[in-house]
Amino acid sequence: MRFVCILLLVGCICTTAIAQTTASKKGLLLVLNKFENTLAFIDPVALKVTATVPTGDGPHEIIVSDDGQLAFVANYGSQQPGNSLSIIDINARKEIRRVDLGACYRPHGLAYQQGKVYFTSELSRTVGRYDFVSGKTDWLTGTGQNGVHLLTIAHHSPLIFTANRLSNTVSSIHVRVPPTPEDIVHIPVGRRPEGIDISPDDKELWVGNNDDGTISIIDVSSNKVKETISVGKLPIRVKFTPDGKLVLVSDHTGGELVIIEAASRKIIKRVKAEGLPVGILITPDGRKAFVARMESGIVSVLDLKKMEFTGSIQPGKGPDGMAWVE
Asked: Do 253 and 235 touch, CB atoms closer than 8 A?
């Protein structure tokens, strides 16, 4: 009898371990609700909110540390300009630090590299770098451009690119300490550029021009636009799949998710996504994408093989920025 009990106990332990391993493999989706100042933790398989954490005012964008322990939230503000980053302990499900960015108002675009967080500041027309360990902004450079909104960072070189909505430019910035004016090149694009992403091989930069309904494709080696393609009404977000073969575009006022073959520049599908689609997140395995539909208050799940929506989540009011935790 004692032997049977031991076997049952071992079986329970193994079953629990397998369940925990399976749970860890499915990942975790983080969604910012900018109209209610919260961060939702979502089970991406059950499509259920498992926790909600308060943030600063008007959270717009979020990035996760490489080890999956911390999330960094840009508190853009709503009626009043924000100037802070919320740092969330992912395991504890709570904000552990509120970083005062001083004169860097309207922080928005975020990127994480080598243990540091890069952020844009619209009103100060700057890009900064925050070091979590020291608790300080250890690098800051002016752009001289208006509406420095979103950014993307090269995978294999110290280059940052910002979309400058009110100057109709993209800034290519070489990260150097201390920064110098020679480290910045401004590239003219279409009207009101916002959505921006760099190809996995760092060769092309795709930028959505909101007022033109176009995408400017920039050759990174020359910092010049080599092609412009028409995609819809308002291409507010642009994201490459991990293999670089597809580009997903949120057509904000057109109410569509546009799927483009990167090499041919051809639109291969338009998926209805009414309710002001904004943020796009693609899972690291390239199998799924999540599309935040701000007005509808839902996040839709896209099967990238079928190229159709297969489910939806209700994370809160005004979903937009998203991040993934392995």
From this structure: no
Cα gap 319→326, rounded to integer Å: 21
Contacts of 169 (CB under 8 A, 6+ apart): 145, 186, 187, 188, 189, 193
Predicted confidence (pLDDT) per residue in 128-137, tens digit: 999 999 999 9
pTM of the model: 0.91
DSSP 252: T
- Alpha-carbon distance of 65 to 129, in angstroms, equals 14
Q: Are 101 and 124 in contact (CB under 8 A)?
A: no
d(CA 14, CA 199): 42
From CA 38, how far away is CA 15, in angstroms rounded? 35
Phi, psi of 110, rounded to the nearest 5 degrees = -135, 150
CA atoms within 13 A on the CB side of 57: 10
Cα-trace Rg, the chain: 20
pLDDT of residue 30: 98
Contacts 24+ apart (CB under 8 A), 94-98: 94/53, 95/53, 95/54, 95/55, 97/135, 98/56
Quick one: which of 82, 72, 76, 80 has its CA closest to 30? 72
Mean pLDDT of 24-46: 93
Which residue has tokens 């193994």?
14
Find out whether the peptide bond into 181 is cis, omega within 30 degrees of 0. no
Kindly give, in sequence order, each residue whose CB lies less than 8 Å from that of residue 236, ignoring residues fewer than 6 positions away: 194, 195, 208, 210, 250, 251, 252, 277, 278
Q: Are 100 and 117 in contact (CB under 8 A)?
A: no
What is the rounded CA–CA span in Å between residue 91 and residue 82? 26
